[in-house]
Amino acid sequence: MAKPSAYIEKVTRELSRLPGIGGKSASRIAFYMLGMDRPAVERLVNAIIELKDNITTCSVCGGISDSGVCSICSDPGRDGKVLCVVEGARDIFTIEASGEFRGLYHVLGGLIAPLDGIGPDELNIQPLVNRCGSSKPEEVILALNPTIEGDATTLYLAALLSPLGIKVTRIAHGLPVGSDLEFADSATVAKSIEGRVRI
Amino acid sequence: MAKPSAYIEKVTRELSRLPGIGGKSASRIAFYMLGMDRPAVERLVNAIIELKDNITTCSVCGGISDSGVCSICSDPGRDGKVLCVVEGARDIFTIEASGEFRGLYHVLGGLIAPLDGIGPDELNIQPLVNRCGSSKPEEVILALNPTIEGDATTLYLAALLSPLGIKVTRIAHGLPVGSDLEFADSATVAKSIEGRVRI
Question: Any idea which architecture A64-198 has in CATH?
Fold first, then answer.
């Protein structure tokens, strides 16, 4: 089997390291790039380099920021009385896309996972406690994934923050909108019954 | 809805222009890149730039080449008596990956599609005729997609090359290996019966 081009092989190999891109997709993208005009390729490449060079961590929430304090933390229009705790910076984008939340965020940088050697001290938890002490939010919403580690971290944070007189809540777990009971797994159905709300 | 980072938005937008990458995958990859070490990002970016800068068209087969005549056309170990005609340069990689073919290739650069204004003159067909005249292959295999345009181009080339005394064949159309008759579409089943072979 001949390898007609080392350059195509190289791009394919590098692209297939990215998440969600297998060998066939990588090869398809490499050939697509071959047909792109040079300015379009430069836009892509420069965007990637700028991303690596310029993004920093927001000193307030621990999320990502283009410069110093992030645009959400520095926005006076946001409601500082509600703090939403998320696992990673990407979760902020997901919640912002829903348009449902107008408060501020706090990024943990992970979840408590004793088997992986990640305890509370490895996470951005002490700064959260300090922040709650100084800015005194009325409510902290824990928006962590409904997994074993997410649930453990949720319980840990609730036990830590409730004594400070803060209302601690967690996002609802249940059936996704537009889904079908028939295809839901039993753990999700159990959660949706346990978390039922009065109408 | 706040946009926490213009850099992430930009990379996400550029990535989502690539084939097979939607908005969610693009965002996932952008965040993944944020976590990659700088040398890994540079390897990716440089591979893309090198690809754009260095790949040329092989003057013999019309496929892609890293320099001048491609590695397949210049390989004395390949069988020059068999020529495989494909639509695009990428098809060469696909056929090479099967390990089944040891001859040479010829890239048409498209298929005859009158509705899109693509006739034989827009394709790499005259050079194919010239090549057949000078190198006198014993067999030309037409490996075009089993679509209306592919079939039309196959018939056109067969009518063009057969009078030159060349054996013209086309690749088999039928059930993919590992598939199930139950799930095959009727056009494929019809092709598989029409193209049945004696065992």
Answer: 3-Layer(aba) Sandwich (3.40)
For the cut 90, the answer to whether the pLDDT of residue B199 exceeds it is no
Query: At A7, phi and psi to the nearest 5?
Result: -70, -40
**Domain(s) of CATH 3.40.1360.10: residues in chain B:** 64-198
What is the distance in angstroms between the Cα of A36 and the nearest Cα belonging to chain B?
9
Residues 6+ apart with CB under 8 A from B120: B112, B156
What is the pLDDT at residue B197? 82
B9 Cβ under 8 Å from any chain A Cβ: no
Name which of A17, A18, A33 is nearest B48 (Cβ-Cβ).
Answer: A33
Terminal Cα distance for chain A, rounded: 66
Chain A residue with the nearest C-alpha to that of B6: A66
Q: What is the DSSP letter of B24?
A: H
| Cβ neighbour number for residue B64 with a 10 Å cutoff | 23
Cβ-nearest to A47 among B14, B20, B49: B14
Instruction: Tell which A residues from 11 to 50 touch B, by Cβ distance under 8 Å.
Output: 11, 13-15, 17-21, 25, 27-34, 36, 38, 40-41, 43-45, 47-50
B100 to A187, B94, B145: CA distances (angstroms): 49, 11, 18
Architecture of domain B6-54: Orthogonal Bundle (1.10)
Question: From the CA of A108, how many Å to the nearest CA of chain B?
Answer: 16
pLDDT tens figures, A163-180: 999 999 999 989 888 888
| Interface residue of A28, A44, A50 to substitute, partner B, most B CBs within 10 Å | A44
The complex's ipTM works out to 0.83
**What is the number of other CB atoms lying within 10 angstroms of the CB of residue A132?**
19
Does the pLDDT of residue B3 top 80, yes or no? no
pLDDT in tens, B27-75: 999 999 999 999 999 999 999 999 999 999 999 999 999 888 999 999 9
pLDDT digits 0-9 by tens, A109-161 = 999 999 999 999 999 999 999 999 999 999 999 999 999 999 999 999 999 99
Chain B residues inside the 8 Å CB shell of A18: 29, 32-33
Which one, of B120, B190, B189, B103, lies nearest residue B156 by Cα?
B120
Q: What percent of chain B is helix, strand and coil (3-state, nearest 5)?
A: 50, 15, 40
